[in-house]
Design a protein that fits this description.
The complex is a heterodimer. Chain A is built from eleven helices and no strands. Chain A is mainly alpha-helical. In chain A, helix 5 packs antiparallel against helix 8 and helix 8 packs antiparallel against helix 11. The longest helix of chain A has 35 residues. The mean pLDDT of chain A is 90. The mean pLDDT of chain B is 84. Chain B is an alpha/beta fold. In chain B, strand 13 and strand 14 form a beta hairpin. In chain B, the strands form three sheets. In chain B, strands 7-8-9-3-10-11 form a six-stranded mixed sheet, sandwiched between helices. Chain B contains six helices and 14 strands. Classes of the chains: A mainly alpha, B alpha/beta. Chains A and B meet through helix 6 of A and strand 7 and helix 4 of B.
Chain lengths: 227, 266
C-alpha cells in the first residue's frame, strides 16, 4: 500500500544532519589546522604515537570507538559523572555528545590531507622563512598554509562527508531521538526496518543529491584554487 | 670575522664519513666554496645557518657565539644574522615579489634601496611563477639582504640559470656586495663565479678542506665594453664587447659606459 511521505520529519532530520556535519567540520578546521601544522614540522619524539592516536578511528570499527566513548560519556563513569555534576552536561543521547564524538571520529579526515599537503611543499620554503627570521607559527600560517589550499579543501570535504555518513558511532552515542540525535543515516535504517521504502528513498535520494552537489562544488573550486 | 670548527657525520659519494672543517673568514670577504657534488659544500652552509646541528663544534660571528656544543649553545636560524639564498630560490609563490621582500622583518627603506639596486622595480607586483630563473634569484638575493645579515650564504644560486641570467645575477651580487660589504660564502661549481666574484676559494673533498687560496685578480681576463645602448623595441640594455653582445632589462646596466671592464663574464 502506498503511504504518503511526511516531509516535515525528513527536513528536521536533514537540518540536524547538516548542523552536525557543519559544526563538526568548523571545529575540526579550527583544531585540525594547527595540529596538522605542528605534525608537519615537528621533530617531537612521541610524534608517531600522536599520529597513531589520531588515525585510530580509520582502522577501528565505529562501534569500538562508540563503545569507548559511551563508557567515557556515561554519567555512570567518572568523566561523564564529573561533567554532569560540575557543568550539568550530559553527553550521552544529546547533540553535544554527537558533536564531540564526531570530532574524534572525523579528526584524521581533516588532519591527514592538510598534514600531507604541508609535508609535500618544498622544505626550502620553510627553511627560507626561518632564515628570514620568521617563527614556525608565522611560517605555517603565512607561507605553508596559503600554498596548500586544495589540501585544506579536501580536509573540509572529507570531514563533512564522513560526518554525514556516520552510522554506528552516532547510534551508540546518540541513539535515535527525532529532532535531537536522529541523523539521516539512522533515519534511512529506521525507515527500511519499518518497510517505509518511499521515505527511505526520500532520505537516500536527498543524501545522494547533496553529496553529488558538494563534490561538484569542490572540484569546481579546486580547479580555480591556484597558488 | 667568522670562526668555525665543525664536525658532522655525513654520507659522502664515497660512503659514510665526517665533515670536519676549521675555517676563519674575515669581515666583508667573499669566499667561494667549490668541490665535487656530495663533498659537503651545502652541508657547510646549512650548519652555519643552523639548519643542521653538528655533532660537535663552535661557530662565532663577530664575537657572538652562534654554536658551542660543549656549552649547549645552538641558536636557531631566526637568531643568527644570516641571509640564505637557496638553489631553487625558495620564493613564496603565494606572495608577489614585493610581499616576499616585505615578509622579512627589516627596514622598508632598505628594501626599496635594494629593489632599485637589483633592478627589480619593473616586476615587484608579479608572483614568482611569472619570473625568469635569473629574476627569481635576484629577488631571493634582495630578500636575503633585507635583514642586513652579518653573513650571506649562497647555495649554488647560478646552477639553474642560463649564461645571460647567470651573468646578470653575478653583476647584481657584485654590486650589492660592494655596496653593503656583507661577509659572503658562495657555494658554486662554476669557475666563472670564482674568477669574477670571489676573494678566496676553498675546495672541499669528502668533508675536508683540501685547498684554501686567495684570488689575486677578480677581473682578470675580462673584456672591455665597446658600445652600450638601450634597445627600445626589446626594452633591454645592450652591451657589445669585441667578442660578444649581451642583453638585459636590468637598469643597473645603465651605469656602465664604453671603456669599462665588463664586470662579469661574457
Amino acid at each position: 500500500m502506498h503511504t504518503p511521505i511526511d516531509w516535515e520529519p525528513i527536513w528536521v532530520t536533514f537540518w540536524l544532519t547538516l548542523r552536525l556535519a557543519g559544526i563538526t567540520t568548523l571545529l575540526l578546521l579550527l583544531t585540525g589546522i594547527p595540529l596538522a601544522g605542528w605534525l608537519a614540522i615537528s621533530r617531537f619524539r612521541l610524534k608517531p604515537a600522536i599520529e597513531a592516536l589520531i588515525s585510530l578511528p580509520i582502522v577501528l570499527p565505529p562501534s569500538v570507538v562508540g563503545f569507548y566513548l559511551l563508557l567515557a560519556f556515561s554519567p555512570a563513569g567518572a568523566f561523564g559523572s564529573w561533567l554532569l555534576h560540575t557543568f550539568d552536561i550530559q553527553l550521552v543521547f544529546s547533540f553535544k555528545g554527537l558533536v564531540i564524538a564526531s570530532l574524534i571520529y572525523s579528526l584524521p579526515f581533516m588532519v591527514h590531507p592538510i598534514q600531507a599537503g604541508l609535508e609535500n611543499l618544498p622544505v626550502s620554503w620553510r627553511e627560507a622563512a626561518y632564515t628570514l627570521g620568521q617563527s614556525p607559527v608565522k611560517t605555517v600560517w603565512k607561507v605553508l598554509l596559503p600554498n596548500c589550499k586544495p589540501a585544506i579543501l579536501t580536509g573540509i570535504v572529507l570531514s563533512f562527508a564522513h560526518t554525514i555518513g556516520e552510522f554506528g558511532l552516532v547510534l551508540m552515542i546518540g541513539g535515535n531521538l527525532p529532532g535531537q540525535t536522529r541523523v539521516a543515516s539512522i533515519a534511512i535504517y529506521d525507515e527500511v526496518e519499518q518497510l517505509h521504502f518511499e521515505t527511505a528513498h526520500a532520505y537516500a535520494g536527498l543524501l545522494l543529491g547533496l553529496s553529488f552537489a558538494i563534490l561538484v562544488l569542490v572540484y569546481s573550486i579546486n580547479k580555480r584554487v591556484t597558488i | 670575522m667568522i670562526e668555525m670548527q665543525l664536525t658532522f657525520p655525513r654520507l659522502f659519494a664515497a660512503g659514510a664519513g665526517r665533515l670536519e672543517v676549521s675555517l676563519e673568514v674575515p669581515e666583508k670577504q667573499l669566499v667561494a666554496i667549490t668541490g665535487a657534488s656530495g663533498s659537503g659544500k651545502t652541508t657547510l652552509l646549512r650548519l652555519l645557518a643552523g639548519l643542521e646541528k653538528p655533532e660537535s663544534g663552535v661557530i662565532r660571528v663577530h664575537g657572538n657565539t652562534w654554536l658551542d656544543t660543549a656549552r649547549g649553545v645552538n641558536l636557531p636560524p631566526q637568531q643568527r644574522s644570516i641571509g640564505f639564498v637557496f638553489q631553487d630560490s625558495a620564493l613564496f609563490p603565494n606572495m608577489t615579489v614585493l610581499e616576499n621582500i616585505r615578509f622579512v622583518p627589516g627596514s622598508p627603506l632598505l628594501a626599496d634601496t635594494l629593489i632599485e639596486s637589483a633592478g627589480l622595480r619593473p616586476f615587484i607586483h608579479q608572483k614568482p611563477g611569472k619570473l625568469s630563473g635569473g629574476q627569481r634569484q635576484r629577488v631571493a638575493l634582495v630578500r636575503a639582504l633585507v635583514r642586513r645579515p652579518q653573513v650571506l650564504l649562497l647555495d649554488e644560486p647560478f646552477a639553474a640559470l642560463d649564461d645571460a641570467s647567470g651573468a646578470e645575477l653575478r653583476q647584481t651580487l657584485l654590486t650589492l656586495h660592494e655596496a653593503w660589504g656583507t661577509t659572503t660564502l658562495l657555494v658554486s661549481h662554476h669557475a666563472d663565479d670564482v674568477r669574477t666574484l670571489a676573494d678566496r676559494v676553498i675546495r672541499l673533498e669528502y668533508g675536508t678542506i683540501i685547498s684554501d687560496t686567495p684570488v689575486a685578480e677578480k677581473t682578470s681576463g675580462q673584456e672591455v665594453i665597446q658600445r652600450l645602448f638601450f634597445d627600445t623595441d626589446a626594452r633591454q640594455w645592450v652591451i657589445e664587447t669585441e667578442a660578444t653582445q649581451l642583453r638585459s632589462g636590468n637598469p643597473v646596466w645603465a651605469q656602465f659606459k664604453p671603456g669599462d671592464v665588463l664586470p662579469f663574464p661574457a
